[in-house]
Amino acid sequence: MSELLGTLKRRVSGFISLFKRSLALRVGVALLLLLIFLAIFQPIIDQYRLEGHEATDLGYFEKFLPPSLKHPLGTDQFGRDVLGLHLTGLKFSLIVGALAGSVATLISVCTAIIAGYRGGKIDSILNGVTNSILVIPSLPILMVVAFYTRLDLVSMCLTLAAFSWPWSTRVIRAQVLSLKERTYVDLAKVSGENHFEIMFAEILPNLIPYIIVGLGFSVIGAIFAETGLRIIGLGPTTVVSLGLLIQQALQYGLLTQKRYAEIMSLVLLLMSIFISINLINKGMDEAFNPRLKKVTGE
Amino acid sequence: MESESMSVLEVQNLKIYYESVWGSYKAIDGASFKAYRNEVFSIAGESGCGKSTLVDGILRLVKPPGYIPEGRVIFEGTDLLGIPEDELRRIRWVKIAYVPQGAMSSLNPVIRVEEQMTDAMIDHGSMNKEEARELAISMLKEVGLPVEVARMYPHELSGGMKQRVIIATAIALKPILIITDEPTTALDVIVQKGILELLGSLKEKYGMTVIVVSHDMAAHAQIADRIAIMYAGKVVEIGSIHDIFEEPLHPYTKGLISAIPAMGKKSIKGIPGLAPSPLDWPQGCRFHPRCPYARDICSEVEPSMKEVSPGRHLACHP
Amino acid sequence: MPSPHEEEIKSNLVYQNLTVSVIITLISSFITKSKHMVRIPGFAGYILKKVLIYIVTFFLAFTVMFWALRLIPGDPWSRFVDNLRVLQVDPRISREFIEEYKRKFGLDKDVYTQFALYISNVFLRFDLGLSIASYPTPAQVVIMRYLPWSIGLLGICALISWSIGIVLGAFIGWKHHKKLSSAIFTIALGMSQIPYFIMAILLIMILAYGLGLFPGRWAFAPGTTPGLSLDFILSVIRHGFLPALSIMITSFLSWLVSTRALTMTILGEDYLLFAEAKGLKKIRMLNRYVLRNMILPQATGLAISLGFMVNGAYVVEWIFQYPGVGTLLVHSFLWLDYNLAQGIILMTMFSVLTANLIMDFFYPLIDPRVRTEGK
Description:
The complex is a heterotrimer of chains A (298), B (318) and C (375).
Chain A: H1 2-21, H2 23-49, H3 82-118, H4 120-135, H5 138-148, H6 153-180, H7 183-190, H8 195-232, H9 242-251, H10 260-288
Chain B: E1 7-20, E2 23-36, E3 40-44, H1 51-58, E4 66-75, E5 78-79, H2 85-91, E6 96-99, H3 113-123, H4 129-142, H5 159-171, E7 177-181, H6 189-206, E8 209-214, H7 217-223, E9 226-231, E10 234-240, H8 241-246, H9 251-258, H10 296-300, E11 306-309, E12 312-314
Parallel strand pairs in B: 3-8, 3-9, 6-7, 7-8
Antiparallel strand pairs in B: 1-2, 1-4, 4-5, 9-10, 10-12, 11-12
Helix pairs in contact in B: 3-4, 3-5, 4-5, 5-6
Chain C: H1 4-36, H2 42-71, H3 76-87, H4 91-104, H5 111-125, H6 139-174, H7 179-191, H8 196-210, H9 230-267, H10 270-277, H11 282-320, H12 325-334, H13 338-366
């Protein structure tokens, strides 16, 4: 038991030292935490600012109000406070990303570990399946699924996950293959751990950096796929994601009305999610592969 | 055998350091030796003692984060570390050739063998494509490879064949000096013998100076004339091959010699302890933590290289 | 009374059996192939293996697609039929009408038969079925009107962004120590993953509505007659500029980034060190040692990237209402034209896989290592 605590302590302090090593990681995590904070507290913020109304409710405020202290981004054609609306969008986009991304990563990690570790027939089959899914253009099928079923948040996320898991599987599987050759796996075999234990207790901890990076990409991929779906007009209208808001912007002609600030706000919110995750990924890379000084310029 | 002839290569107090987040790796920390015309000069030491880095330094192939803070590499009177890039390029291969460790990966996988052999010949301006090709083919014969190899791609060749191709490329322009790094590692014993004989013959046939860098003492015993022993980034002993093997003076050398398995030897003795880290060389004589003859002075003062008898250099407190 | 359908159904059943048995043979031979490791040496073996994988992958993807669509609750036909019902005045007439439609589109048979029929139609007669919306035009005719625009757009974007991207990327990698290279790289890295549609929106905002330089919709100006006239061609270029740019910017940047990384890895390889030790001229090293090795994975990468570019490209098409299959796909949903949607998905998969296969054919030309596989 104390051994476990010892390992835990080591891992945690090792984890914290990562932050010291990379500026990108610090900035990325900070930004992401800020966004998540905004998303979590969005309902409370709205309660406070909007006199108890939902940001998405129609018609509580005057239409087309210019930006002011009460409405920092003004109001739209439905009399909704734009800032509250956008924050709601942020919240839903993050939820979609998190949910779809985690499911996808879960599937891909399991698949990759099993395929990479067991090898042989299982590997070939799983590989074949992975490659087939990669080849199928995911968006059209997503569109079909979205259109013909009344999707809700969860089913949409699951469908998004179903198409994005093969991507990280390849990377993780390659890593599993190289780890398999290392001596401590043989040690574990000799000491009598069975396959499952080896897979999840020995190999998994070393995959964590790759898993996190894979998670990052899955989340981004899911958010963008969802946004792509939205622009076409599909997807549940109850899930007010940034994508939906962008689609509404296009539909209601915000471009022609030259209401660029609103569009830019949406785009910037979306971009900041993606930039923060990218920074984290880059930071993870820097932290786990510390550069030697006087390097070649990387 | 050392003679009064001018040295072909003289390395003076060469230092090669690597900067890292954890400090300076002092891979080579003041190595000095001389190599003469028409001899096979060996550099020996444990794996990881920096022999390959030394070669990189001599050829000025050290890449960042490595750098050379101090030292001179004098080749035919000129310090290689000081001359401009294009002058160096013109000296390379024509005067100094290099057979790297791991010939397996030193060949470009997507171009044919003959192109890789002739491109250096052409780029050094001495001949056209046809002449280069003929020279390449004659060199292949020289190292005992069939002519068909020329049109092949590297992946079609075995390890030993690739090694020979590289040697063939190296001797083509009749350089004065050839430096080979671990020429026999990763090859099976029979192929090893052939390669070593080939290298040894270069001296007789072409009057080349061959520097062989290896951890394999048996290989050195087979072809070397003189040998330098390296430890912890420095050269600790130099002498003729007979002297070193019959009468090793430095404690480390003694340990190395006694660790060689040989017919008739009853026991092998290893050298106790672990090799020290280049981040933190031991104080004083670097070998003192593992030395059976260590005295107080050994942990305080670093011994310098002295010529204890003609042609015999030693860095050890008497 | 046997309807004229019976004959059709009978011959279809023959097709059905034939197709199913061919497929079973293919799959079993694939499985046994991996068991026996029957190796045909050299180039022929390589190609055969690739073609086999192509067929099996296509079939697998096709099957997944078909069944995924069928297993969704909320069968489209009932929606279509409900729609019709709404439009019909007389419920009796509508029932017959609906039955007829069902028969026409093979909906009166069970799913397995439908699958078999579809396979046989597609593979043996290249018949994607009838487009519901444009009835009686067959789906493939409709698709063929739009497909050239998509292939043109995507093809040009992919080729241009790839070629410029890898050359510049190699150069930046080669000179990675220069400050300019690092700067370019950082910017590229940051922008390389902006999705096409965001780029499209930004471009429309700035260039179309903001500066009025380029049109924000369509492929050519309404009113211009298609043909080989200069007017038309100029109009096409002008209209295609923004959609193409949306795709090309991100694509080019991502090739830049990946090629730079690849180049830097290659620079660290032993054979580059050896080349330098040989005292080769820089130009030769860059050309025969760096570029020649860099292009291999990047060429494969190009083929693979097509599958992903398609996704983004379809959304971009829709934003610009560009008359490619992307826009057609969205419309096919709005018109509840199931066959058309299915057909477009099929064509997309087919095009992507075929592009990959073509790349597989050309790959041995540049990589000598695969030429002797299996020997």
